[in-house]
TrEMBL record:
Domain C-methyltransferase residue range list: 249-407
Domain of life: Bacteria
PANTHER family, alphabetized: BLL5978 PROTEIN, TRANS-ACONITATE 2-METHYLTRANSFERASE-RELATED
Alphabetical GO biological process terms: methylation
Domain Methyltransferase putative zinc binding: 8-69
GO MF terms held by the record: methyltransferase activity
UniProt protein name: Class I SAM-dependent methyltransferase
Keyword terms: Methyltransferase, Transferase
UniProt-listed SUPFAM superfamilies: S-adenosyl-L-methionine-dependent methyltransferases
Length: 412
């Protein structure tokens, strides 16, 4: 436990409780080229706090969004299961809300347009808001309107002044990456049309604790939400959570539905209270639960290191699959370098022939696995393990096994 001078990102209460200290960690989305190996890399303290007033789990903003998104390399279109998830969502929400060409859909953090293109195909007006210019450009080239900006009150007011409001306002995996949470949600309130609906998808922090998903903590990921905290954030900004879907993405996410609080009197789905109660029952509004967490995470680290060292001593070749942001936390926290994981591979061409930040593990194209026939493949994006094991079915030919590091070490 240690005190910190900064207050909670949402409620301003002093943050007095460290949930987990992961030591020093670099920015996980950085691209490290061969030339960069001769340069220094910046490491920042990576510490997660929990606020005992609103139960928002959070990491301080030590690096500005501008610095992070200037070399942002995440393109949503590289995951098949994620594309299908987006299509399914668009079908579901179009039917549920009865969306037509008269409605305006706005997506915050629209990335490369992988989701909005489904609305566009259905002739439903779609607008993206995306701060990473190189990523937004891909969407614009596909004919999807994009505002290249960080979202907040200023952007919302500008759009409203132009006569644009959202009948459906969505933000997937973005609210956790926003340094000024209150400005962001206040902006959503402004941009939402009077009878509009907000949907927000974000990993459920119950899995961060119970599922030991500590590698989802990284510099660029500022806030980790329980429903308990999300509900308070919405309320404070005049919005009301009225339904939740439990979905499997990113190791277990919630899709929150919100509307203007002024529409009170409308029904709230029982699942909202049920999930809040589940969080209370799991001890997530009790500090003792958070105090135990560091020990559990250390156990996960030791198990992985034990496995890797033993495999190496037995002369086995171990490689990785994937180079997601979460791998940076895992590898840096565990101190895993090329001696323990020889290389990793990624389907994203921008990451190929570069190196994992901090640990300098080389990233190759997936073909490298067939060329070197490793004994073990550590699946770093463990949330996509089924999809990846299917894609890599051919490695069974030479008897390779898959290693899943989280929540508990599994060799399959
Ligand atoms: Zn708080």
């Amino acid at each position: 436990m240690s005190n910190d001078v900064r207050g909670c990102r949402f409620c301003g209460h002093p943050l007095e409780h460290t949930m987990l200290d992961l030591g020093l960690s670099p920015l996980c989305q950085s691209i490290v080229s061969r030339d960069d190996l001769n340069r220094g890399q910046m490491f920042y303290p990576l510490r997660a706090f929990v606020c005992d007033q609103c139960w928002l789990i959070q990491v301080h903003e030590l690096v500005s969004g501008e610095e992070i998104y200037s070399h942002y390399a995440y393109f949503s279109s590289y995951s098949d299961s994620w594309l299908k998830h987006a299509r399914d969502y668009c079908d579901m929400i179009t039917e549920r809300l009865g969306l037509s060409e008269k409605d305006q859909v706005i997506e915050i953090a629209s990335n490369d347009g992988y989701l909005l293109k489904n609305f566009k195909a259905a002739n439903i007006p779609a607008l993206g808001i995306e701060p990473a210019a190189n990523v937004a450009q891909v969407a614009i080239e596909d004919g999807i309107d994009c505002v290249v900006e960080f979202f907040g009150v200023a952007t919302a007011k500008k759009l409203v002044a132009q006569g644009t409001q959202a009948d459906l306002l969505l933000g997937n995996n973005v609210i956790g990456h926003v340094p000024d949470l209150n400005d962001f949600v206040a902006g959503m309130k402004i941009l939402l049309a009077p009878n509009g609906t907000i949907t927000i998808e974000i990993p459920h922090a119950i899995n961060l604790i119970e599922g030991r998903q500590f590698d989802t903590i990284y510099q660029e990921h500022y806030s980790y939400f329980l429903l308990t905290a999300m509900r308070r954030v919405m309320r404070r900004h005049g919005l009301e959570l009225f339904d939740v879907d439990e979905i499997g993405t990113h190791g277990g996410s919630l899709r929150y539905y919100a509307r203007h609080a002024e529409e009170s009197g409308r029904e709230i789905a029982p699942i909202v209270d049920q999930i809040e109660q589940r969080e209370i029952d799991a001890g997530l509004t009790n500090l003792d639960t958070y105090h135990d967490y560091a020990r559990v995470v250390m156990e996960t680290k030791w198990n992985l290191l034990e496995f890797l060292i033993r495999a190496r001593r037995e002369g086995k070749q171990v490689v990785g699959y994937g180079a997601p942001g979460k791998a940076s936390t895992l590898l840096n926290y565990c101190g895993i370098r090329e001696d323990l994981i020889r290389y990793t591979v990624d389907r994203n061409e921008m990451k190929q022939n570069t190196f994992m930040v901090g640990t300098s593990i080389p990233i190759h194209a997936p073909d490298m696995i067939s060329e070197t026939k490793p004994d073990y493949i550590v699946i770093l994006p463990w949330n996509l393990k089924e999809e990846i094991m299917q894609q890599l079915d051919h490695v069974r030919e030479w008897g390779a096994k898959f290693v899943i590091p989280i929540p508990e070490l599994m060799v399959l």
